[in-house]
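Researcher: Please predict.
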Amino acid sequence: MKALTKFQKGEGNVAIMDMSSPELSPGHVIMEVHCCGICGTDIHVYHDTFRNYPPVIMGHEFSGRVVEIAPEVKNIKAGDTFSVLGAVAVTCGCCSYCYRGEFMFCKNRRGMGHGVNGAFARYVSVRPDQLFRIPEGIPMDSAALIEPLAAAMHAAVDIANVKPGDVVLVSGPGPIGLLCVKLLALRGVKIIAVGTSGDKFRLSLAKRFGAVRTIEADLESVINIVNEETSGEGVDVALECAGAESSVRSCLETIRPLGQFVQVGHFGRELKVPWDHIAFKQLRVLGSVGYTRDTWTQTMKTLAQGKLEVEDMVTHRFPLSKWREGFDLCENRQSAKVLLYPD
C-alpha cells in the first residue's frame, strides 16, 4: 500500500512509499483509514525535531472503519467506525503511570505515526482498547479531529483551573490553540487570542470561534491591549500554545498576580524568558501534554451532546499523494486543520 513514511533519520527524509499492508495480529483489528489530519508533531517528525523510529508510517489523527477482526475480539463488527487513540500503541501497562491512566508518562510508550506505523496509509492495525466509537451524527471528518480536541480538552479543561468570568489569554492560534478557544468559549470566559501578522487567517478563525479580541503581537502591544481589556488587572489564565519564546514572554508579562500559566506548545530547544515573574507574581505554572483515557471519554461525550462544532476547523482536504501541499499550508500558517485521504 502507498504510505507517507519517514524512511530515515534527519531533516526531511519523508516520502510516499510502497509499504506492506498490516497483517491481522491476535487481539487486533484492521481498520481502513477514512482520513488523517496533519499535526504539528508530523511537522516536527519531518524536521527530525521530535523523537521518531524510522522507517515508520506517519500520521495519528484519524478515523476509520473496521474491515477485519481477530477471532478473539468481541463486541466489534466489520463496518463499525471509530476514532483511534494512537498514543497508546505501545505501553508497558504496569508502571504507576499506566495504572493511573497517565499513559503519556510511561517510559516504554510509543505512539502511532512516529513510534510505530500510523495512519497516513490505507490500512492500520490497532487494539480494541484504542477504539472510541464515533457518536451518532458525527461525520467521519470530524471524528478525525477527536485526537487534537482531546489534547485541547486536557489543557483547557483538565489542567487549567478556569472559572466563569475569567479572562484567558490563548497565545498561539494553531489548531490546538483554536480548539482551546472553542472549548473555553463554552465555559463562559473572556478570551483574548494572540498571534502574529503571519497568523491573520488563524486569528480570524479565533474571533469566529469565540475570542473577543485578537492581537498581532509583532504589530501591537500585547501588554497595552490586555490592560485595556482587563482594566489593568491582567489575565487570570494564559495558555501558551505556540511553542515560541516571545509567546512565553507575553504570557508571563500579562498574567495577573496569583494567576495561572499553562504550557501547551512544544519548543524543542532552550529558552531565555523573564522567569522572575513566576516568583514575584506567585504564579501557578502547569504543563499539559497529550491527554488521559478519561479525557477521551469526556471529549466523546461533549461531541455527542452536539454543543461543540469541530468540522469548521477543517480548512483543506487533499489526497495523500499531495501531502507536501498540506504540510506547506501548515508550516506557513495558512490553514487550521488539513486532512489527508488515502488515494
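Model: The longest helix spans residues 146-159.
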